[in-house]
Amino acid sequence: MKHPDDDNELFNRLEAEMADSGGEVVDLDKARSARNESADPTTRPGSDPSADPETGRSADESGDPTARRLVDLPTAKAAGPGYLGRLLAAQRRDVVPAWLKSTAELKTATGWVARHYAHSVGYHALRTPVYAARLTLQAPSGAAKFLGGTMRWVADREGEPVRLAAVRREDAAEYLKLSRQRDGRVRLRTLVAVLAMFIGLGSALAIYVLAPDWLQAVSVSAVVMALGFAGRKADDPVIHRAVELPKAVKLTSDIVLRALGSLGIPAINQAQGKGRDGFEFTAPITRDGPGWRAEGNLPYGVTVTDVIERRDRLASGLRRPLGCVWPEAVPNEHTGHLVLWVGDQDMSTSKKPKWPLLTSGSVNLFKPVAYGTDQRGRWVEVTLMYIAGIIGAIPRMGKTFLLRLLLLIAALDPRAELHTYDMKGTGDLDPVGNAVSHRHAAGDDDEAIEYALKDFRALREELRRRTKVIRSLPRDICPESKVTSELADKRSLGLHPIVIGVDECQVLFEHPKHKDEFEEIATDLVKRGPATGIVLLLATQRPDAKALPTGISANASARWCLKVMGQLENDMVLGTSAYKRGVRATMFAWGDKGIHYFVGEGSDARIVGSVYVDGPGADSIAARARKARELAGLLSGHALGEEPETDASTGYDLLADILAVVPAKETKVWSETVVARLAELRPEVYAGWDSDALAAALKPRGVSTVQVGRRIEGKFTNKRGIDRSQITAAIAERDGKRDAG
Ligand SMILES: Nc1ncnc2c1ncn2[C@@H]1O[C@H](COP(=O)(O)OP(=O)(O)OP(=O)(O)O)[C@@H](O)[C@H]1O
């Protein structure tokens, strides 16, 4: 779009030049049109920018002080970065193509080729007897063809039309010449034929008399097959194709231009109307994975998003199914740089490579794991640690399946503690929940909401505990102040990954009574969870500010957006102004189930088709995950049939309990007295605690024990104890500076 400042600048510069030359006011419209013409992307190169657009002469040449002057300096062409500058900014294409660099892709491609030929060989081997029988049946006709052909050759039948033409012209000299040539040729060919016959018959006789049976059989078969082959009919081949390869039409520049011309974008149509291309190819059209890739610049002012918006028309212009046509913008390029990838097959129906984790293998959540494929069939990976993610889509597009897939991946890391909430209540998350989850609930009834609320509160406590543990760790063990795979392995620290998945999260965030608390805790988990090893994954079918509070959607670092209906939902899931940048999940078709835009931590949006794992598949993966946990002794909570109340490890608040047993008038109390009272209060948790255990439990909560002196029976005794004011201060800090006293 032309900026109004451009006109002002143009006007000012024209005025300045006129003042220099004492000229009059210039027709700005004409100057503008001259400028626009020189700015047309498809203008032929080589035209002199300083020349008058009408006379072809430059203003200086004409000597007319009122002549219009062009505002671009003649040196404008040379301006801009020099050769080195351009080299620095140049984009280098890969020397080795991506598919050759990836061993997984190479293996997949080799596997496909091997399977293709194995199939062909098997197909033909099974049909060999049929082929032999058909060739034998065709052998007599082949023999007749062979004999007839030989006779015609000996009799020089190919020269006959020429001789007959000489007869018709009554050209005696020519006819005599041709006849003599024919007689000579027939004599020679007869000799060759007779010789060949004797050699053939002699060989046959020799084989009959001298050769072993197998050689006789092979020779006779070979002759019969050869005669059968000679007797084949053009319209009925003996050998049929074992594999019908899909015929993908080659993408040519003409097809691309035709398709772009059919979009109804005025700038392209105008350029094409004037006989120009309306698109400037910047690289040859090449094969790229199972499809074609075209790349180039759209006319000035036309953006890639204009094309993406009309993807269905583009598909019509290319005469390809919608699922094959993927126009994309290139990050860090100008907005008119289009990459058009046209697949051989529809992405939603094309055959996907087998997901390696489907049948075996485990996961380290701190490392990338493949969870889907892009348009080109290449694996796309996600690292589930250090993220908070949101999944959004209209109903029935595969949102729950995607969430379940991510949770299954998490389940395959035995260290991960899963909290799964299926607020839709249809049991889609049950395979994971029942097999491995520490906490799991389905449905939106009061019981499930209470359960979730209790768990969220406990998770907030856990988050706080973790931040303190991380803070108390020495720098060399925890150099980045975040949980690492090594720290997660140390069970004593309790920093294992926690993955929370909530399907239809709007049920929590719109709950009439608890919505604020859910929102507050979830926002905290999204902001501080990733560094402490807590991952929150939220899925919703109604991504708006109520269903997905902005504090959460703005801070999520991973986003998965399946088909949505409008810009608002699109940007809600994919981030502000994603729609404007051309990242539009609105373009997905209804049949594009599981296909989504994925924006990972700091990476550009990619189109991904997630791996399809159905219910039974999910069951078997979850069973595998359960087994691994059982072996490692890491199965806990819901998966063991435990209810949260009976699980003492997270269901208590030590600081609050101390306040409960130490009245305000007792400012300092010995630890042994505190643990005795605590054991009375909550024996299932505190029974067996001693002073040291209390000190160890208080340390991550930011409280240390102090020396407390007492005079007992006239004797002064010093022992470790707690200072009540420290406990109230810790609670105040923990609860956001609220007064806990
Ligand atoms: N990756 C995939 N590939 C192919 N088909 C898929 C994929 N994921 C999901 N589907 C299909 O899409 C259907 C809908 O999936 P799912 O139940 O996850 O949708 P949803 O968006 O969660 O719907 P709702 O909003 O009603 O819960 C599934 O029944 C499944 O057959």
From TrEMBL:
UniProt biased composition (Basic and acidic residues): 27-38, 54-67
NADP listed as a keyword: no
Protein name from the UniProt record: Cell division protein FtsK
GO biological process, one term: cell division
Transmembrane segments: 186-208, 214-231
Keywords: ATP-binding, Cell cycle, Cell division, Membrane, Nucleotide-binding, Transmembrane, Transmembrane helix
InterPro entries associated with the record: FtsK/SpoIIIE/SftA, FtsK_dom, P-loop_NTPase
PANTHER family per record: DNA TRANSLOCASE FTSK, SPORULATION PROTEIN RELATED
Organism expressing this protein natively: Streptomyces aurantiogriseus
A GO MF label: ATP binding
Source species, domain of life: Bacteria
Annotated FtsK domain residues: 366-571
Spans annotated as Disordered: 1-67
